[in-house]
Amino acid sequence: MNILDKIIIDKKREVILKKSIIPVSQLEASVFFGKQTISLSQKLKESNSGIIAEHKRRSPSKSIINNNFTVEEVVKGYENAGACGISVLTDGKYFGGSLDDLLLARASVNIPLLRKEFIVDEYQILEAKAHGADLILLIAAVLTREEIKSLSQFAKNLGLEVLLEVHNQEELEKSIMPTLDMIGVNNRNLKTFEVSLDFSKELASQIPNDFVKVSESGISSIEAIQELKPYGYKGFLIGENFMKTDNAGKAAIDFISQL
Q1: Is the pTM of this model over 0.85?
Q2: 57-60 CB contacts, 8 Å cutoff, 24+ apart
Q3: Which tens digits make up the pLDDT trace of 64-88?
Q4: 56 part of the active site
Q5: What single DSSP character describes residue 254?
């Protein structure tokens, strides 16, 4: 069993537990539930940099990346740097995140927020909306075509955008549908953790132009982005590169100004 399989088993258990503690009515009563969302896909289309900066404390492959910042410091730094949007990891067991991180981010900035999570149930999409997210991530590797269809439709009905993450041609082919806004190619193989920009390059021409193309993971240099832009990528998700420094916001400012 690989790490992704383990995460999904734990996630399904976690969702069952949460459903028994926090009813849907409580999520729907949240102050953010009725909030108008901000479009990340639109911001990426209009941006020159296309940076989606990530708040991430740790990961299964790197263990602790950084525990020294407050969420507010990081996300305000990213907003000041001119990031198009911010990805907030909310998985606790493997990434050290929480829904409180998303809530704090929403209270601190006014740019699009992605709930970065292993979504397997509509309940998690309601949680995302209740905690101030503007969009959700769906991972093709762990969902069937029918699940992608129903979860993306559910998100759209709540006014959330959908970023669908793929890693190979097979995942892409089963996933293409009108209820998606952005298609992201993960340059990290979630099963082996091997990283290569070739994944983004090889899949670029297969992604229809109706979707905003996003390249995720393993992007640590200006050169990498300049290499990917000719392939039609408008968004670039960067996490560890900023978080592993002493000042994530300053690292993002330096990076984006160079771009």
Answers
A1: yes
A2: 57/89, 57/95, 57/96, 57/97, 57/243, 58/94, 58/95, 58/96, 59/94, 59/95, 59/240, 60/3, 60/7, 60/94, 60/95, 60/193
A3: 877 778 999 999 999 999 999 999 9
A4: yes
A5: H
Catalytic annotation present for 66: no
Q: Is 186 tagged catalytic?
A: yes
Q: How many CB atoms lie within 10 A of CB 130?
A: 23
Among residues 165, 175, 200, 215, the one annotated as catalytic is 165
Cα–Cα–Cα angle for 230, 134, 233, rounded to 5 degrees: 5
Cα–Cα distance for residue pair 35/132, rounded to 1 Å: 8
Whether 72 is a known active-site residue: answer no
Mean pLDDT by 10-residue block, N- to C-terminus, for the chain (259 residues)? 92 98 98 97 97 92 77 97 98 96 98 98 98 98 98 98 97 97 92 87 97 95 96 95 93 94
Which candidate in 11, 43, 56, 213 is catalytic? 56
Q: Which candidate in 11, 47, 87, 116 is catalytic?
A: 116
Pairing of strands 63-64, 58-59: antiparallel
* Strands in 94-223 per DSSP E: 113-116, 135-139, 161-166, 182-186, 212-216
Q: Which has the closest alpha carbon to 165: 180, 186, 147?
A: 186
Catalytic residue among 87, 186, 215, 241: 186
Let me know if 217 is a catalytic residue. Answer: yes
User: Does the annotation mark 174 as catalytic?
Assistant: no
The single residue of 127, 216, 240, 241 carrying the catalytic annotation is 216
Catalytic residue, chosen from 217, 234, 240, 241, is 217
Task: Report the distance separating Cα 179 and Cα 152, nearest Å.
Answer: 6
173 counts as catalytic: no
Cα 180 from chain centroid?
14
